[in-house]
Specification:
This protein is of the alpha/beta class and 298 residues long. Helices cover 47% and strands 15% of the residues. It has an 8-stranded parallel β-barrel with strand order 1-2-3-4-5-6-7-10, surrounded by 5 helices. It has a two-stranded antiparallel sheet with strand order 8-9. The longest helix is centred in the N-terminal third of the chain and has 24 residues.
Amino acid sequence: MRKFLTLVTIVAFILRGMAAMAQESKITIGTIVHNLDDVDARFKELKDAGFSSCEIGFGPQKCTPDAAKKIQKASKKYGIRLTTLVGVPGYCEWNFRGGPSTIGLVPEKDRDAKVAEYHQMIDFCVAAGIPAMHSHFGFIPIDPSSEQYKSFIEVMKQLCEYAKERNIMVYFETGQETPITLIRAIKDIGTGNCFINCDLANLLLYGNANSLDAVKLFGPLIKEFHAKDGHYPDPENPYDLGREAPIPEGDVDFPGVIKELKRVGFTGALTIEYELSSSSMDYLVKTRKYLQSLIDAE
């Protein structure tokens, strides 16, 4: 009888562990917290609205040691999973004219200052218990033999090594390059802690891929998604990005993407990003329910 009870106890323990693992492994839906003036209130608002994860928007003035402590405390208090710290240092032009010469670490101009801010982001991740930081690192050159590409890969290697030494992952946010160009760059960086935050709309807005094909190409490199919708650039105006749209009014194939995520056992986060206006809670909640319905569908 004693052996039987011991066996029952062991089985019950295993089942509880499996249940906990299943609970932890499901896809979470979140949004981005930019306002850190009252962290507890922001996280309570997310919890009350049914969200279970969030990204933190970086700002050198607001991301202080005190803010890091408050983020960790609020995350535990409300059960909100911290996924990434997001920021793009320096002056940026979000178009095809000025973007290649201003965004990220591909341009050499102001590169040292940007790297210093990325180091701040990585250090804040450590302090706040955030596992990754992500950014737009620039329009990666398609030619891997070009000096600009080689220079970019070298500076990214150094940045990713800095993060790796601190047990932090670095995610590329998609958009400015084709999926294969980004996959090649990650392979050439080769530090093992470099992955993808797949912005579903950006792939369209920059005219580089449709969402479902990109997801299939990126595969296990994807650790997180920005749930955002939009359209391809207007052929009559090839100098500006395509237009963002509310989910699901754009051209992103959300049913197809989420079906693919479920097929491959994805366990990361879908983070709603809405840049058309200040992110109203009504839109965020409505979109969370829509995405959840796709996750729950057979």
